[in-house]
Amino acid sequence: MSVSWLNTGDNAWQLTAATVVGLQSVPGLVVMYAGIVKKKWAINSAFMAFYAFAAVLIAWLLWAYNMGFGAQLFPFVGIPHPIASMADELNQAVIPAAKASANFPMSTMVYFQFVFAAITLIIMAGAFIGRMNFTAWMIFVPLWLTFSYTIGAFSLWGGGFLAQMGVIDYSGGYVIHLAAGVAGFVGAAVIGERSPRDRENFQPNNVLLMLVGAGILWLGWNGFNGGDPYAASRDAGAAVLNTNVATAMSLLVWTALDIKYFGKPAVIGAVQGMITGLVAITPAAGVVNGYGALIIGIVSGVVPWYTMNVLGKRLAIFRKVDDTLGVVHTHAIAGLLGGIMVGLLATKAGCAAFGLSTPGGAIDGNWHQVLLQIYGAAFIIVLNVVMTYLLLKVIGVFVPLRMPETMLEIGDDAVHGEEAYAFYGDGQRRPILGD
Length: 435
Hints:
By secondary structure, this protein is mainly alpha-helical. It contains 18 helices and four strands.
């Protein structure tokens, strides 16, 4: 039975966008993580992502969605409540605290927002790879979703106090990437380092598999940023184009810096540049023009490259904290840059197309927007430093956060009883005596 509010085109696009964002996680980051780590950690790294995707969905349905997008409990979080009844799922999608609605059903909105929540935890896992106790990870995922992610989501997207102040986060530069990068860095410090052997030598076991995951991540970002107008609109098209422009520019700049500094182009560096471009354009994608996207791509190629390859080797804090995949550089720093550049480069026309009353950023004379963006970033940073530290300390009372040294030496076979690649006989993990 048709209803007056349903736009089938918008619903089809939103479900498609949600699905391709889901593909960024499974299989995108699953296979990217499996390829970018040492062979002995391929299964564990992939499984951390795979588990998080499933665990977040169940928690999202039972209580967390309404904490992020439901009726207000406090100015920074909604009321915990399930959203699993058929009546809820078939009704028109509304975000009550934001006084917003969309022309598709609530079930579509819940799934769309779920894939954003899931990838946040999966991104964060990149900082913990190679030593976090899997049981501790299983407990940490729903707790961090509940006590950190939902607060950022409600504050910026669900009608909370940052949204009311006018802070802009188009598609998650703050809610997802700054949060994941900061939480990952804090968590890496609390959990502790990998084994000395792994810190000294952590060569990727399969660069081509890593590139498959990276490619899925790049193209999946079209749903990431193209889905946030909640409609198959002109702004969705602009956001998709800007996303790819910034990403391409960032990749090229990072590669050029690799050539100048290291004397050769590196595909791993190119992937890092791709990621920083994707991250930095995310808070700005639908509110800047093509020139703004180019500028964001240049900045996201230069600054995180410098913090990772120069400051990362010079500053004690970066040397001491074992952030396995450099998530603080590729996500926290890139997300922070993108959020601040929204304040500089957002146009009045872009904001209007996205449905914002904000008169653009500094480029249109609204320098106050820069200050608002800094306020928003500060809140997300403090929230994730405090919550991540407290949650891990509490979990650590009951479950070791770090694997024992014997497991760290062996890897997947000790943790899961499985190996990523079997090259013997009919596929058994060890050669049989006499073969």
